[in-house]
Automatic annotation (TrEMBL):
CDD domains: HATPase
Gene Ontology CC, one term: membrane
Keywords, alphabetical: Coiled coil, Kinase, Membrane, Phosphoprotein, Transferase, Transmembrane, Transmembrane helix
Organism per entry: Stagnihabitans tardus
High-level lineage: Bacteria, Pseudomonadati, Pseudomonadota, Alphaproteobacteria, Rhodobacterales
GO molecular-function terms, A-Z: phosphorelay sensor kinase activity
Segments forming domain Histidine kinase: 232-439
Entry coiled-coil feature ranges: 199-226
Protein name in the entry: histidine kinase
Catalyzed reactions: ATP + protein L-histidine = ADP + protein N-phospho-L-histidine
Length: 450
């Protein structure tokens, strides 16, 4: 509305001034014919000149002499006089709106300065009706144009508000809803990208809060698992240290040659105790960062895992993954998951004393990528399968803590996927890692967000 006023008010006042100036100029031109050849201007020609100028009479003041140059009968008394020489901006605006608000067609006198120094002043009488009609027509056009400008401005403002404010706020809301539904899914942690500074600060604060909350939830879950396993850890650790103490006493009190054979057992016992403590403490810290999703070739990762595990002569590896298959995940975290599964498979085969094969395969469907790790080992015992991914209860071998598979499953869940045991029998064991192709809840499907 302010824009309408700022456009319309001065425009209509300016139009009225231009209209009156045009009448004065046309009247001055008509009077020049009379002054140039007064004897040649007939009454009929004089009437035609006044009609073309749309005035009733023309008065010129030249050399201090006021002269009625052209004249005709005035149909009614003069209702108002306007001197354009002395009018300021507010006078012009006031007079313009007075004409618009008064529908009566009256005779008015207009005084102005002649052009080209054609005298001291020029004065005409005219009807106000034609001027009012022209002003109404011009005002309507101005209102339409200004309304269109306001409409376009409103549309641009609406689009800008949607893109800069509403869309980022909806994105934040989707992230909050997705995070509330699955706090452990690392993909639901927002990546700040707003272009408005205040919204960017809010997104960064939300990211910090989500990260801290996720770590706190993991910490609480792991501490709960630690609490339920304290008795078992204390018992196992006491037995290991008791064995180490017995061998240590024998070393101190005897010069028996068997000490040389007992020393390795002592070292192994102490090593197992240290490893158990370190694994327990590492699990309790819950410092896993959210996955940093990038594109990479799966086959190269599988080859790195096999090479890093250093498989012996009794265990071979077969990789069955297309050379061009790429997926989106955190390379380091996925390497840890696959390495843990391959290591478990190798240990299971080596425990039989025979030979075996580990197969690593990969593929994709419309909705997900999958990675299969299988072996020809003896299979998992039934008790281990019951709590396979639970810390301290899902160990697949004697002396194990069960932390490896628990951490691996947690890392895969952080990608929004799942680690599944497909089968485990006397023919071997097969695990499958499933990773979704969608970019994550609340984040759409564009990979550019990563």
């Amino acid at each position: 509305m302010l824009t309408e006023v700022l456009i319309f008010v001065p425009s209509i006042a300016r139009f009225r001034l231009d209209f009156l100036d045009a009448r004065l100029k046309e009247a001055q031109i008509a009077s020049l014919a009379q002054l140039a050849a007064p004897d040649m201007v007939s009454p009929e020609l004089e009437a035609e000149l006044l009609k073309n100028a749309e005035v009733y009479n023309v008065v010129l003041r030249r050399d201090q002499v006021r002269q009625l140059v052209l004249s005709s009968t005035i149909p009614s008394p003069i209702a108002a006089t306007y001197d354009l020489r002395e009018a300021d901006t507010w006078d012009l605006i006031r007079d313009a709106f007075a004409v618009l608000w008064d529908p009566k067609d009256e005779v008015i006198r207009v005084i102005g300065a002649p052009v080209q120094e054609g005298g001291i002043l020029i004065e005409v009488t005219m009807q106000s009706g034609p001027m009012r009609h022209a002003m109404v027509d011009y005002g309507a056009r101005i209102l339409v144009i200004s309304a269109l400008i306001a409409l376009v401005t409103a549309m641009l403002l609406f689009i800008a508000t949607q893109r800069l404010i509403v869309v980022p706020i909806r994105r934040v809301v989707r992230h909050m809803q997705a995070y509330a539904a699955a706090p452990e899914d690392g993909r639901s942690i927002i990546e700040p990208s707003a272009r408005v500074v205040e919204l960017l600060i809010a997104e960064e604060a939300l990211q910090t809060m989500q990260t801290q909350m996720t770590n706190a939830l993991r910490q609480r879950e792991r501490l709960a698992q630690l609490g339920s396993a304290v008795a078992k850890i204390a018992h196992d650790l006491r037995n290991i240290l008791t064995t180490a103490q017995l061998f240590a006493d024998r070393i101190e009190g005897s010069a028996d040659p068997a000490v040389a054979r007992a020393a390795p057992k002592l070292v192994a016992s102490i090593t197992r105790a240290v490893n158990l403590c370190e694994s327990t403490l590492a699990f309790g810290r819950a410092e896993e960062a959210p996955p940093r999703l990038t594109r990479f070739v799966l086959r190269g990762l599988l080859e790195d895992v096999v090479e890093g595990e250093g498989l012996g002569q009794s265990v071979s590896a077969v990789i069955d993954a297309p050379a061009v298959l790429t997926l989106r995940a955190d390379v380091e975290q996925l390497h840890r998951v696959i390495s843990n599964l391959v290591r478990n498979a190798r240990q299971a085969i080596e425990a039989t004393g025979g030979e075996g094969t580990i197969e690593l395969a990969g593929g994709e469907s419309d909705a997900e990528w999958w990675i299969r790790i299988g072996d020809t080992g003896p299979g998992l015992p039934p008790k281990a399968r019951e709590h396979l991914f639970a810390a301290f209860t899902g160990s697949t071998r004697a002396g194990g803590t069960g932390l490896g598979l628990a951490i691996a499953a947690e890392l895969v869940r952080g990608h929004g996927g799942a680690l599944e045991l497909v089968r485990s029998d006397d023919q071997g064991t097969v695990f499958v890692i499933r990773l979704p192709k969608d970019a994550g809840p609340g984040m759409g499907t564009s990979e550019e967000s990563h």
